[in-house]
Records
---
Amino acid sequence: MPRVKLALPAKTIFTTQIPVRVTDINYYGGHLGNDSLLSILHEARVQFLKKFGFTESNIDGVGIIMSDAVLVYKAEVFYGDVLTIEIGVDDLEAIGADITYRVLVGEKEAARAKTGIVFFDYGNRKIVQTPPAFKDLFGPPVESVKK
């Protein structure tokens, strides 16, 4: 069976640390549950947005909605481990982007993930264009014109 491969952008924009709680542990496996990893990444994403003055419901006047998620596990994670989560932004497009995550325990990579987001007007219940403030911060750098 082919495995999912997930490349991460070279640039990390934000890093945070989140401890693994007992409620994050899969009762049968004794390690971090897959559903809990997604919740931890959600917390990391909220912290990331807050650093730049955003919330999930207000990025330059619009919200975000998750369109997809990919989780790739590299190592087990246990109760009491402190996760270092490195966040990047990739594939910025007209209506969305990928937020990427590299999850470390110490120096060891434990997981990689991405959540696809699209920008959403919750008042009108429709997808909207990527806000200029988000593009300005996380879009590709504009190359200078040589004269």
---
Amino acid sequence: MSSISIGEEKDFEIGKGYTFNLYGEDILVYRGQKSFFAIQNECSHAKFPLEDGILNEEKCSITCIHHGAKFDLESGKVLSLPALKGIKIYKIYIVNNEVYVDVI
């Protein structure tokens, strides 16, 4: 497992998503009101990017705007059809105001 710094906490606007390609993996990072989330930036249903999805921090979910598939941001599990397979999640954490993502 490799931990990669993706910037300082202040570099991430609350409620906004950011995409990163780390070791060939397309990762979407969201900064919510209370925490950060890092997920695979691809809906498992039809392979559309989730970066334009609808984030619901209270329900800890993201909904793909293309067909309505919904995923849990902490586990990656499917919360609603048409997706049948979950998405990959990544551990994300902050050390001394630096944001890190665990990849591979």
